[in-house]
Design goal:
About 4% of the residues have low confidence. With 803 residues, the protein is of the alpha+beta class. It has a 19-stranded antiparallel sheet that branches. Strands 7, 8, 9 and 10 form a four-stranded mixed sheet that branches. Strands 1-3-2 form a three-stranded mixed sheet, with helices on one face. Helix 3 crosses helix 4.
């Protein structure tokens, strides 16, 4: 090595002469830019040409040790050492040559999976994403990550019934650069384990059948296992099953029960060796069944025992029930949460009494409910994320929490339900994913609440087409924006045009007038329809045009009262042949009403008070809640109309969740129209006719109700309607359901006879179309009780919901 142009001072101690980076194990070719490593190295060499000499002393050595730590913590390296060599200058001064000798970790360029048929790559990557494990291309090879990926793949295979599957990562060098490798996870599935039988060992108080019903994951296969995947043995989920069985016992008073891991007993194997049937033998130690002795509370000061005790539906002498205790704790948590005590926790301290060995009575356990109340919290700030269109104020006005007020968990639940009822966003579940409640740094007893929403299409476009006996062939199109300009206002435009019908309407609703919870709406419309009233195709035409105004005000939680006013002009016309036909029928007592005889122009002026109570959790994909709608329009000549009548109607809807993906929906609808004053006969257009996909599925619109001797619809002055549907959420926006509908309209001369109800049963598939924000429906209905104009079985396409 050539000496430097300038030597260090002769009396200088050792100096740092040179410093460099070396990667000899990989041919001194680095996969990472050398400048990156130099960024982490703080040691600097001397600069002889400038006469700057860096002493090689204790501070320099400490810098080298710190360099070592920084380089190693980058996780770029597999090996690292610092070598120091001496170079003696001509004047005797020792120069230190410092070399950072490195070997980089291998870099992953290709990841493959071989040998697995039960799960594909997409399923594996989804499982890795759920576990927040990532094996990215061009990342450094990490043994711990390979082990975690292998474990997750094994767990995924176990969920599919392959508990003995093995996953082995194989690393191979690749050409094209230093330290480049491919990783192949070699999968050996082994036979699928299917459960043929589950036997419980040691259970005396509860039989196998009831314990079997408590299992969720590891259940015996049945006839439809090929479709439901039931019967797969998954040891990773047996702990959950064991806890469910133990909970079953604890709910009956066996709180000392113990459920051990199952013994897997092989039974037989399929001829091709791909399936092995096994029996699970589950050991159980039941323990004694305990009755409740004394009940006491400790730790509660904010809420007195006298207020807490009624929440616990358990008395001394009852069998101990874990479920009753849990339910009571949930009620207590809601009670404390309403007062801002969000850190409330509680648990039952169970102390069995010493029992005499000769006693024949059930043992007794004294229960102490130990409570930690925590501190009361206030709301510091309310904020929203994800509302790219909807303004903050539209969401804020639905909240029952207030900045500076007490944090009320019950009010938060209610607020989430109100936001869901808007229909502007994807449904919120109220979990941490949807609502973040975080303590405010630097401020005691205060929380920030962030509601995380995801906008869904606020515009609804509905279109449909059909053909009925009375309306002929028709097509319809409507456009609704329920969040006009992000202000929460509703605007509706609709049109229907057919061979014998047409409808045009425009409506606007403001839910908060003058920033107060008072709604106001207005609409204008024009409707025309030509009815065919008999086999000889005589006609009756009706044209209705008008305007409606509505004002609403909240009464109490989920309830609103409305008052509406409507003014309509109705033009009716019919052919002379129909008039003659009516005269012929008069002698046989056919109940035909005056609009036929009073064709021309009529007016309706009516006031409509109404009441609405609605806790249904979503307008188009409901799962739970109740809706009660009551209205009583009153029309009269004193208001400028042609007829006097009152028309009370009631609709009640109930959704009852059954399982996580199923629920039962029920609806009752009934109404009565009654003339008064100088009106003795009801207008034809105000009578009841049932049928159609919003009433009785599979039955044509306006075909259910009283008819005359020539099978012409004359309508009723009363009606009753029942709908029931049980739905299954299949996946994403797809919902399947079975239904049964029944309804009938009755005339003044008929009693309300439920045995004369027109019924329809069937199956339906609904697909929520995100772009249109409305469900499309495929309906297959059947009923043997059809008239001559209806087929026993029918297939329909519709848009919207029945109720």
């Amino acid at each position: 090595m050539a000496p430097p142009a300038q030597l260090p001072p002769a009396d200088a101690g050792a100096v740092v002469y040179l410093m460099g980076v070396c990667l000899p194990a990989q041919g001194n070719v680095s996969a990472v830019e050398v400048e990156t490593y130099l960024h982490y190295i703080q040691l600097r060499p001397s600069l002889p040409s400038q006469g700057k000499w860096v002493p090689y002393d204790e501070p320099a050595q400490e810098t080298m040790r710190a360099d070592f730590r920084r380089l190693w913590e980058t996780n770029f390296l597999d090996d690292l050492r610092i070598e120091v060599d001496d170079y003696v200058f001509s004047n005797g001064v020792v120069g230190k040559m410092v070399t950072y000798v490195m070997e980089e970790r291998e870099r992953v360029k290709l990841v493959t999976y071989e040998g697995g048929r039960a799960v594909d790559r997409t399923r594996i990557e989804d499982a890795l994403r759920d576990k927040k494990v990532e094996l990215r291309l061009d990342s450094f090879l990490d043994g711990a990550t390979l082990a975690r990926v292998s474990r997750i793949v094994q767990d995924t295979l176990a969920e599919k019934g392959f508990p003995n599957a093995t996953v082995r990562p194989v690393v191979k060098a690749l050409a094209g650069g230093p330290k480049l490798v491919s990783v192949t996870f070699v999968i050996a599935e082994g036979p699928r384990m299917s459960i043929r039988d589950v036997a419980f060992i040691g259970n005396h108080a509860i039989d196998d059948a009831r314990l079997l019903s408590a299992l969720k994951w590891n259940r015996p296969e049945h006839l439809f296992s090929f479709a439901t995947n039931r019967g797969r043995y998954d040891p990773n989920r047996f702990a959950e099953d064991a806890e469910r069985v133990a909970d079953y016992y604890r709910d009956l008073g066996y709180f000392q029960v113990r459920v051990d891991s199952p013994v897997v007993r092989p039974l037989d194997t399929s001829a091709n060796g791909t399936t092995q049937w096994v029996q699970l033998r589950v050991p159980i130690e039941e323990g004694a069944r305990y009755r409740v002795g004394t009940l006491s509370f400790e730790g509660n000061s904010v809420v007195q025992t006298a207020a807490l005790r009624p929440l616990f539906k358990i008395e001394s002498g009852d069998w101990y029930s874990q479920q009753r205790v849990r339910d009571a704790f949930e009620k207590a948590r809601d009670l404390y949460g309403a007062g801002g005590y969000i850190e409330f926790t509680a648990f039952p301290d169970l102390r069995p009494r010493d029992a005499s060995g000769t006693s024949t009575e059930a043992p007794v356990v004294d229960v102490t409910f130990r409570i930690t109340e925590g501190d009361q919290y206030l709301v510091n700030r309310l904020s929203f994320t994800g509302n790219t269109t909807t303004r903050d104020g539209v969401i804020r006005r639905e909240l029952q929490l207030f900045e500076g007020g007490v944090f009320n968990r019950q009010a938060l639940k209610y607020s989430i339900q109100r936001i869901n009822q808007l229909g502007y966003f994807k449904p919120l579940e109220g979990s941490d994913k949807d609502v973040a409640v975080e303590k405010v740094p630097g401020r005691e007893h205060a929380v920030d609440v962030t509601v995380k929403v995801e906008e869904q299409n606020r515009n609804q476009m509905q279109f449909g087409a059909g053909m009925s006996q009375y309306e002929g062939v028709f097509g319809s199109l409507s456009y609704t924006t329920s969040n006009f300009l992000g202000r929460g206002e509703s605007l509706t435009l609709s049109a229907q045009k057919g061979s014998r019908s047409s409808t045009y309407a425009l409506g606007l609703t403001e839910p908060y007038v003058f920033s107060r919870p008072i709604s106001a709406g207005a609409s204008v419309f024009s409707r025309k329809i030509d009815y065919l009233t008999g086999a000889n195709l005589v006609g009756y035409s009706e044209v209705r045009s008008g305007i409606t105004l509505t004002v609403g005000k909240p009464l109490f939680r989920f309830a609103r009262a409305f008052v509406g006013y409507g003014y309509e002009v109705i033009d009716t016309a019919l052919s002379q042949s129909l008039l003659n036909d009516l005269d012929d029928n008069a002698s046989v007592g056919v109940p035909v009403f005056n609009p036929f005889l009073d064709e021309g122009r009529h007016t309706e002026s009516k006031m409509t008070p109404s009441f609405l109570y609605n806790t249904v959790n979503h307008p188009f994909q409901p799962r739970s809640g109740m809706k009660i709608a009551l209205s009583a329009p009153v029309a009269g000549s004193v208001l400028g109309g042609s007829f006097n009548y009152i028309k009370p109607e009631l609709e009640t809807i109930l959704y009852v969740p059954h399982t996580r993906k199923t629920a039962l929906g029920l609806r009752f609808n009934g109404g009565l129209v009654q003339p008064f004053g100088g009106t003795h006969e009801l207008p034809y257009y105000n009578r009841y006719f049932l049928g159609g996909e919003t009433q009785i599925r599979g039955v044509d619109i306006r075909t259910v109700g009283p008819t005359d001797s020539q099978n012409r619809a004359i309508g009723g002055n009363r009606f009753v309607l029942f709908n029931a549907e049980y739905y299954f959420d299949l996946f994403g926006p797809v919902r399947a359901l079975v239904f049964h509908d029944a309804g009938q309209a009755f005339s003044e001369r008929q009693h309300v006879d439920l045995t004369r109800m027109r019924t329809s049963s069937g199956v339906e598939l609904r697909v929520m179309v995100p772009m249109l924000n409305v469900p499309f429906r495929l309906i297959y209905a059947w009923n043997t009780y059809r008239d001559t104009f209806q087929k026993p079985r029918t297939f329909k396409f519709a848009v919207g919901t029945t109720f």
